[in-house]
Amino acid sequence: MYRPILKLPKTKSEKIWDYIGGSAFIVSILYIILLWGKIPSEIPGHFNGLGEVDRWGSKIELFILPFIGLFLWIVLGLLEKVPHMHNYPARLNENNVKAFYLNSRKILNEVKNLCLILFAFISIQMVRIGLGEANSIGWWFLPVIIIGTAIPIIKGIIATAKIK
């Protein structure tokens, strides 16, 4: 199967997504570190579909999402660098390879950064709830997650279908 290795520079939108996702993620980690001494020993450990706390856990659990986020940031960042290893339809050829690679990489980039933003928000809300500054992450959070992650995927599938 035709799979050349191309060096395609990141697009402006990919750079913007990386900046927003990475910044939000780093800010959430700094927020946890700066408030560590004020955070109570028990913080929200899980939320139900309405965004309400349904399990409390140790404040050490605040590091779970940052570790998962860091893992995603590294692995998905590495996968962005090798679009020739992604899955493509049989119609991939020398005339459309650049379009397929860019589209696949953009989908991956958006999903990666949306996950980082979501993890940052959840981490900050866990601290805020623990400190008594908030009661839940909000009923709207689950629909936002579903829609927010579906949009880049659907957009990417439509773009893929349009590549000749």
UniProtKB/TrEMBL annotation:
The keyword Nucleotide-binding does not apply. Pfam families: DUF1648 (PF07853). InterPro entries: DUF1648. Keywords: Membrane, Transmembrane, Transmembrane helix. The chain crosses the membrane at residues 16-36, 56-79, 114-131, 137-158. Residues 25-69 form the DUF1648 domain. This is DUF1648 domain-containing protein. It comes from Lysinibacillus irui.
